[in-house]
Amino acid sequence: MKLKGENRESADYKEGSKGKITLLLALVALISAFGSSFQYGYNVSVINAPAPYMQDFYNQTYFNRHGVPMDSGFQMLLWSLTVSMFPLGGLFGSLMVWPLVNNCGRKGTLLINNLFSIAAAILMGTSQLAKTFEVIILSRVIVGIYAGLASNVVPMFLGEVSPKNLRGAIGVVPQLFITLGILVAQILGLNSILGNAKGWPVLLGLTGIPSLIQLLILPFFPESPRYLLIQKGNEEQARQALQKLRGWDDVDDEIEEMRQEDQSEKEEGHFSVLSLCTFRGLRWQLISIVVMMMGQQLSGVNAVFYYADRIFQSAGVDNNNVQYVTVSIGAINVVMTLLAVFIVESLGRRILLLAGFGLCCVSCATLTLALNLQATVSWMSYLSIVCVIVYIIGHAIGASPIPFVMITEMFLQSSRPAAFMVGGSVHWLCNFTVGLVFLYMEAGLGPYSFLIFCAICLATILYIFFIVPETKNKTFMEINRIMAKRNKVEIQEDKEKLEVFHTVPGRQAVRTVISSSEL
């Protein structure tokens, strides 16, 4: 009777703790996101404010070497490389995700990744002293590789250490720190702070500080329990890590769920990218992450930020004050992403995706109208400002944070690294493509460019509405069963599997499920 009472007390404690976050789990999320995701956002916008001073440095360095000023076309080429090498490095970093997380673990990969950031920070911070602009371009590739790895590994790591009822909220934390990184870079890049001729090397070099902090602190936190049990086969270490993260000793239910996932995947082994792309059982999951990642980057977020300055100028904002308006937009981005952290578990992933892309779609359509009419209708410039703000809100609550959460949730342990590699590669490739193509689109189409982004948002909405399921508060195995119905698996067969699973307890149930699916 005493044992039953203890079990009931433990169950009551866990039920009462549902929805709460332990101090250790909060620290893991904060240190992982600050040391990695923060720098992704920081390096996205860090070169925007000091661009004129950096270009002067390029020109002066070239003049000191050759005795003649740099050709304007060559200078434009060098600056284009400085900007575009970051997303290209991000693509290279995404391609490194699968081998690193499988061999070094999630936490181990984040620790190794810090070396890229610290090396790039030292090179960029000393570039003016060394009188070399080539080092800046090289460093942008290196910090891009860092961001490519960080943008994939942090959501994967946090998704695996989180309980199912907090997975969405904690999964949005990396995006929150990306927006914080953008905002901090915008603030430090003000002319009165570091966005000037003397301060820009320091501004670029500061990116190494969060990495150094993470490198010193993260080793004291546990590795992903799912990685330890399913991929390393060490149940004791996985149990200890899980007990630390959850704050209680009885973690048998989660360990058993991991065992079931492990057994269900033993026949398939670990997926490479090629096997993931050719495996019919994961076809709709793969298509879904590709569509969501393409929608995220091709929905016009870079174009909106590009147009923001001139939109505010047309509304009468003084040129000297535009930089402060840019900071205010960055602050809105942070606040709305923070809101997403608190509402993703109550509203669900689908609602935020549909609402986010819906707001972006309407904003792009209205912005096209407003930009075309603002020369003849005076109040249209103010409508343009509203459109920019609404667009930022839409992207912050859904289009930016949720796709990475969905990659974590729609794939099991054996296929998740390859899925992040594919999703991350699509993310960075689209980012690079938009940066390359948009200036030509803007020159040829002007404000009508936003109609293309509107169409992309609409197509993404339709796909999500008809195909992507709600994953809120479901285990990875439950989500996998939902997606199995779309992957040409008969519903009747799935019911038989569930029936066998519930009537035969323990490991034998899992083996029966596997043999049933192979018939």
TrEMBL record:
Gene3D superfamilies cross-referenced by the UniProt entry: MFS general substrate transporter like domains
Membrane-traversing stretches: 21-42, 76-98, 110-130, 136-158, 170-194, 200-221, 286-308, 324-344, 351-373, 379-406, 418-441, 447-468
Limits of the Major facilitator superfamily (MFS) profile domain: 29-472
Reaction(s) catalysed (UniProt annotation): D-fructose(out) = D-fructose(in)
Gene Ontology terms: cellular component: sarcolemma
Pfam family, one: Sugar_tr
The protein, known as: Solute carrier family 2, facilitated glucose transporter member 5
GO molecular function per UniProt: D-glucose transmembrane transporter activity; fructose transmembrane transporter activity
PROSITE patterns in the record: MFS, SUGAR_TRANSPORT_1, SUGAR_TRANSPORT_2
Any GO BP: fructose import across plasma membrane
Membrane topology summary: Multi-pass membrane protein
Name of the gene encoding the protein in the UniProt record: Slc2a5_0
Subcellular location: Cell membrane, Sarcolemma; Cell membrane
